[in-house]
Design brief:
about 500 residues, alpha/beta, TIM Barrel, Immunoglobulin-like, 2 domains, 8-stranded parallel barrel, 9 helices, 27 strands, globular
Length: about 500
């Protein structure tokens, strides 16, 4: 039996709003994410709009995708934006040294990416080059993008086809600068960040939300908290002196956490045993330790929680699919990956006072992708369906709840979840049962709600096998279905039901 209790009166606390940007995505110049993924070119027989596949755009719009991070990733700190503007046939051909050593033709550059964001109706999140770039290069990119008056750079933008400036909010100052972005110490990167940030100007009423490179989850927690503290000591000084956070040089700190079955041998995406399933679940749940420890350090210098944690790379990382390019990171996506998405998004929801944005890695054909393509075919993955089911939490207000769950294995609780209430007073509860063998009886108690007066509906995503997945031959093998209302037993303020094994359920309670 699992007992879930919402004890207090349900309120819409502005400090506990679940930002829609938690449900963001990440697209790097890596493998087939852009080329032969998003991008087919405007002369392709595959239906497209200015080079971007219509089916992918429509699928992502159904998720109400709030933002898209670009151009990397490791690629960002070797990306020079001037290579990606002007006539395509004149653009530089560069080597993608991180991902397969292939030639990057720069056909997807600034104008193309921002066109994609407009098609998706989402906000761009651009990551600037600190590792191999210069302050001047980053400052000029921002001017090119956002300056409305006549300068040499704004006139160049107009010459390249864009009269009005773009509105760019989210701006990353470097990526993984402790590793592929320069192998820097926390102290050295902190000095560089505050220097670069000084020259990231707000032009023409555009206000940047500047994001510093934070830690990765691999090293010991002491290293992780040290990196955060080095940044926060200086950030706290600015926050204490400045009332308007947008006048500060820092607004967010990133975190990267990838979930694998092992450190060296990551294991197959589709052929695995239950012990590997358990490892993945436990590694995904390490996200809570990361968020808790980062928040503890940040609270010391920023008690008003103005600076956000930006988990701009997260997801599963398995061995690449057999007979695919090892540098392209193409992997299949199963119910195991869907479970990781569910566990992680529920944690982001519960830490929404500090987690301001997150980005699943990556959107198409790379790592934990919601979308896979093969020629003119496209499929959505189990992870895609989790995002579609969970979009009800976007911009809703967190409802704190207590979960007392029976243990699956190795002291790992079987039941996890989160709850929210939206502007229309609909209550949404997302729950998952990570036990791949047994269903679990649930008693859900809402102390201040008479459930007999409410309309209750639910949807469920469930697999029969741990490695159930969608393929190009069977694209709808795993998809959400209605969870019959007859499965619920209502007693005043209690809702009793059984959550099936290896399943994710979203319950809606409304008038």
């Amino acid at each position: 039996m699992a007992k879930i209790k919402i004890e207090t009166e349900i309120q819409k606390d502005p400090q506990k709003r679940i930002s829609r940007h938690i449900y963001g995505h990440f697209a790097e110049h890596l493998g087939r994410c852009f080329y032969d993924g998003f991008w087919v070119g405007d002369d392709s027989s595959i239906p497209n709009t200015r080079g971007f596949r219509n089916d992918i755009v429509e699928a992502l719009k159904k998720l109400e995708i709030p933002n898209l991070r670009w151009p990397g990733g490791c690629f960002a700190d070797e990306y020079h934006w001037r290579n990606g503007i002007g006539p395509k046939e004149r653009r530089a051909k560069t080597i993608n040294t991180h991902w397969g050593g292939v030639i990057e033709n720069n056909h997807v550059g600034t104008h193309e990416f921002l066109d994609l964001c407009e098609q998706l109706e989402c906000e761009p999140y651009i990551c600037g080059n600190v590792g191999s770039g210069t302050i001047q290069e980053m400052a000029e990119w921002i001017e090119y993008l956002t300056f409305d008056d006549e300068s040499t750079l704004s006139l160049l933008r107009r010459k390249n086809g864009r009269k009005n400036p773009w509105k760019i909010k989210y701006w990353g100052v470097g990526n993984e600068n402790w590793g592929c972005g320069g192998n820097m110490t926390a102290e050295h990167y902190s000095d560089l960040f505050f220097r670069y940030s000084t020259f990231c100007k707000n032009f023409s009423d555009n206000k940047l939300y500047k994001i510093a490179c934070g830690p990765t989850s691999g090293p010991p927690m002491s290293w992780i908290t040290h990196w955060i503290e080095v940044l926060m000591i200086r950030a706290g000084l600015f926050i204490s002196l400045i009332e308007d956070i947008y006048d500060a040089p820092i607004h967010g700190i990133s975190l990267h956490h990838y979930t694998s079955a092992g450190l060296i041998k990551k294991g197959s995406a589709t052929e695995f045993k239950e012990q590997d399933w358990l490892k993945i679940m436990r590694n995904a749940l390490k996200m809570e330790d990361l968020l808790m420890n980062m928040s503890r350090v940040m609270d010391k210098y920023d008690p008003r929680k103005k600076i956000g944690i930006i988990v701009d790379e997260w997801g599963t990382w398995h061995e690449v699919e057999p007979d695919t390019n090892p540098g392209f990171l193409f992997q299949q996506n199963t119910m195991r990956d869907a479970m990781v998405a569910s566990l992680t998004l529920d944690l982001f929801n519960r830490y929404c006072d500090r987690v301001h944005m997150a980005n699943l890695a990556q959107t198409v054909n790379v790592l934990q992708a919601p979308i896979l393509t093969e020629g003119d075919k496209m499929i959505t993955t189990p992870t895609y369906h989790v995002f579609e089911m969970y979009k009800v939490h976007q911009d809703a207000f967190l409802i704190p709840m207590k979960i007392e769950s029976e243990v699956y294995k190795r002291k790992t609780p079987a039941i996890h979840g989160s709850a929210s209430i939206d502007e229309n007073d609909k209550i949404h509860l997302s729950l998952c049962n990570i036990n791949p063998n047994e269903g679990i009886n649930v008693e859900l108690e809402l102390s201040e709600v008479d459930l007999k007066e409410k309309q209750i509906s639910a949807r469920i995503l469930q697999g029969k096998q741990m490695n159930d997945r969608n393929t190009f031959d069977s694209p709808e093998n795993v998809k959400p279905t209605a969870f019959p209302s007859s499965y619920f037993n209502i007693e005043a303020n209690k809702l009793n039901f059984k959550i099936p094994f290896m399943s994710i359920i979203v319950i809606t309670i409304e008038k």
